[in-house]
Design a protein that fits this description.
This protein is mainly alpha-helical. It contains twelve helices and no strands. It folds into three domains: 68 residues; 98 residues, Tetratricopeptide repeat domain (Serine Threonine Protein Phosphatase 5, Tetratricopeptide repeat, Alpha Horseshoe), CATH 1.25.40.10; 101 residues. Helix 1 runs antiparallel to helix 2 and helix 5 packs antiparallel against helix 6. The chain is elongated, with a radius of gyration of 23 Å.
């Protein structure tokens, strides 16, 4: 996926250079056909760019589906990409970030934190502010899941500080704010589980699910959200709605840890296995 986006950008730049050269050539010799040829090449370049970006998006969605349904295949694919030569530092960090997210989805929080700690030790070199926000936000969630409440709170505050100074398109910023609000609601629910925090947590999950379903490019967390909505409904005493959410997860055929948690819960009735 990263290769396709990079390749498409390079091709587009090359084509634009050809168009510029052809245009100047046409003006220099006062030839209408050279200018017309440049225009045709420009149109073709736009269509080629759109086609390659469409392929890249399709490849991306297939990769993301692996994170939902076959986390080990996703991690294998990312590690193979990481072994490729001539990767820029930025792309290498992007792939490592993908791997960390994969570990989080597989509930291997210690492995994810090793990668994030590596980023932190390097002073977040070759990492954009947007990526840094996601890293800090994920660090907070990972520490929360392993029970380190103080570090979870610390990294949540750091993520908020980055978010306040971030400069990105409005739609991106809106998705970041929604993501952070969900992180805060999850933190409050885990630290102080009661009806109020459960309802707030459920509302943020529902909002996130609606936002994700409207954008094909964000598919990673849909199943996880259904699972966590089920957990929130359990905390609110609505077992029927909880089971409806759990059914969505089980019917997906996904191979992720929280699927097994649902199966154990239904077999034993043990609520303690329904961790978020």
């Amino acid at each position: 996926m990263i290769f396709l986006f990079t390749f498409s950008t390079v091709i587009f730049i090359i084509v634009i250079l050809i168009v510029v050269c052809a245009t100047f050539f046409g003006l220099a010799i006062d030839s209408w056909w050279a200018a017309f040829t440049a225009f045709i090449v420009d149109v073709i370049a736009v269509f080629v760019m759109k086609y390659i970006m469409k392929l890249a998006l399709k490849k991306y969605n297939k990769t993301i589906d692996k994170m939902n349904y076959d986390i080990h295949a996703f991690l294998d694919e990312q590690y193979k990409f990481l072994d490729r030569p001539l990767l820029s530092a930025y792309v290498r960090n992007l792939v490592k970030s993908n791997i960390a997210v994969g570990y989080i989805h597989n509930e291997q929080y210690d492995e994810a934190l090793k990668i994030y700690t590596e980023f932190e030790s390097s002073g977040y070199q070759n990492i954009t502010p947007a990526m840094r926000f996601i890293i800090l936000n994920n660090q907070s969630g990972a520490y929360l899941r392993i029970g380190d409440i103080e570090r979870a709170r610390l990294y949540m505050r750091n993520a908020e500080a980055i978010l306040r100074t971030a400069n990105a398109p409005q739609t991106v910023m809106q998705s970041f704010y929604s993501l952070f609000q969900l992180t805060v609601a999850t933190f409050n629910f885990v630290v102080n589980k009661n009806e109020q925090t459960a309802m707030e947590y459920l509302n943020k999950l529902q909002a996130s699910l609606s936002a994700f379903s409207s954008k094909d490019i964000i598919k990673t967390s849909e199943l996880r959200i259904h699972y966590e909505m089920g957990v929130a409904y359990i905390a609110l005493g609505n077992e029927e709605r909880a089971n409806s959410e759990f059914d969505i997860v089980l019917q997906s055929g996904a191979s992720v840890p929280f699927v097994e948690r649902i199966k154990v819960y239904r077999k034993t009735g043990d609520l303690s296995v329904l961790k978020v």
